[in-house]
Specification:
The protein has one domain (5-71). Helices cover 56% and strands 0% of the residues. It has 3 helices and no strands. It is elongated and about 60 Å long. 5% of the residues are buried.
Length: 78
Amino acid sequence: MEVPDVVAEALGDAESVADEEAEANRLAAEAVDLETVGPQTDMRVFMKRGVPLVLKAAALRKLWSSDPVFAYLDGLND
């Protein structure tokens, strides 16, 4: 079954917008200095589509080590 040109064009436009959004998310996350990440940091910028997993992990690691509440192991952790 062949996809009509209008549908194919709409799908291509949607993919283009999604790629642009992912790129914008990556750039926004890379603009944050990881040295400033702490309990008051809005971590949503790191959790969006397009942000590399390495950057997400580094930001979360910094958050967890920035506050004893996040770093506390209570024995229930595996």
